[in-house]
Fold:
Amino acid sequence: MTEDFATDPTKPAQRLRAGSLTIPLIPWLIAGALVIVMPLFFQANSAITIMNQMAITIIFALAYNMLLGQGGMLSFGHAVYMGVGGFATVHIMNMSDFFAMLPLPVMPIFGGLVGMVLAMIVGSFSTRSAGTVFAMISLGVGELIAACSVIIVVFFGGEEGISGDRTYGLPFFGIEFLQQIEVYYLIAFWLMVSAALMYLFSRTPVGRMANAVRDNPERAEFLGYSARWVRFYSFVASGFFAGIAGALFAINYEILTEENLNLTTSGLILLVTFLGGAGFFFGPVLGAIVFTLVQTVLSLETELWGFYAGILFVATVMYFPGGLAGLIMMHVPALRLGKAGRLIVPYLKTLIPGLFTVLGASALIEMIFHYRHAAVGDDEMTLFWTSFDSHSALPWIVAIAVTVVGFWLTKKTAPDMAAAWHDANSPDGGAA
Amino acid sequence: MSVPALQLDGLRKSFGKTEIIRGVDLSIGKGERHAIIGPNGAGKSTLFNLITGRFPKSSGSIRLHGHDLEGMAPFEINRRGLSRSFQITNIFPRMTVFENVRCSLLWSQGYKYSFWNMVSRQRALTEGAEAILEQINLTARRDLPAGVLSYAEQRALEIGITIAGGADVIMLDEPTAGMSHSETDYIVDLIRKVTENKTLIMVEHDMGVVFGLADRISVLVYGEIIATDTPELVRGNARVQEAYLGAALEAEH
Structure:
């Protein structure tokens, strides 16, 4: 057995393996290219507004996941770092002499620094432990700063918030950021820079130790690292990127209010991150994209969008704790075995009836809502591009029938899907 | 005489009114392999936790290479060259085996809390971790999450993490607990190899392991050390036999 101990660091096998840890470039190049060409496909101003909001949410969610996913810290008050960064940015925009000397694209650095300084102050006492204590402190600090918005009116502007004008800055190569598309590319630039920096952070010694402290803080202490300081550095880095997101919010909307600080916003970013999947770096990106679409597109269709978003979150927590990213990554073993193709037909057989079940059930919910809340005499409602009388029997029968049949078919085909899943994940020829 | 690697003077620890460690004096020289044995509940693990800063002591002093460890946190004690393993496996379950070992190398290779180095670009780090993996025979498990390893493999990883940082005082808390005979033999070989020229302090129940490895043995009974001596003399000590060893040795044969 002793010959196993002999180690030769010059072995080529060992050097090769060292090389296998290099950073994968291709997903980043694809993401960068997508970000550049998206406005060519979606040219409407409303689409660009949605994409701007999406990009800001992505940065915020990635910053939040530095705590939740990578550092194992559950924060209920992370909106304040983004919010305060944003408020500070608006104040700088309002210092007209100073702002006139600065091009707009550098503003996020200020937002980031302010978010970072605030995180240093709060983190100095909140990162002593993770778990419940950290969560409660984050909740308290979040509430405290949100309450400050009506107390420190000079900075937070009270209930109406504060507003600025992004176009007063020094023109940047002739661009004055009057148009949405110009703002889009400014935000897109910062999105790519922030995402890349956050990714690289996770590959540094302190970023690796953040994972170690998340898994087992005590063991990390017996390896020479103070769990508290590891948490502190993650927290400060997260505050910096949240501040960048805040500055971009200030640039995009030119107004910040109490809403940017409060617990609702803090809670939403937790849900967005969880929906996307806290366990993977790209999870929060998916979460932010899906949630922004639900928030903007679905909210145009129905007043009940929040209800559906809530169901989506509960379903994620209960059935897919890995989030959307987890759902995708779950298919990697089947892909490696080259058997993922066998899943397509069973998936369609189960998921299409499933989709109809969801649509039928949501139709019922919408009809109940209309029946109960529409003005007296207003019996006509429009759903799925069809207009009908919500007080007549036929639409109810159709909706109930679709839901029941869809559910029955889903249940009936689910075992086949499960069997196909098992098959696709078992190596051929081996004992399954 | 040179400064001992570890010196305990009048060490005491109470939990509430119960005194668990009742005045321990012990001096362990550099390069010595020292085993602490004793019946269940004698306070062996508590003694380990006091030395490594996991629990605060009630009174007495602990010196590592002559430096008083008074008031130091575990991470500060570790930085002074003392590393320990745990009786209940204590690893990073969601990280890969390789990452477990690499993380345990970071501080000793001087990376501290740096956020300007990419760990994957540091050849010394990667090669150091690979070398440890070969030593503990887990190269084939390199990219698996540590949580899915078998019990014996996790115990080997535990030792790997403990020795990786190059500490010169290694404390192992029941390294062979729950292992089969062949696994035990393997771990004993491993311990002997990786602690060469280092100071080893171990708590162990397996008398075969203790008498095979230790230069000296301390017997801890009810929070007091009743004997510290070479294995042969401890074996012959009447008090030890009365308190503990007799029963254990009879069980062995």
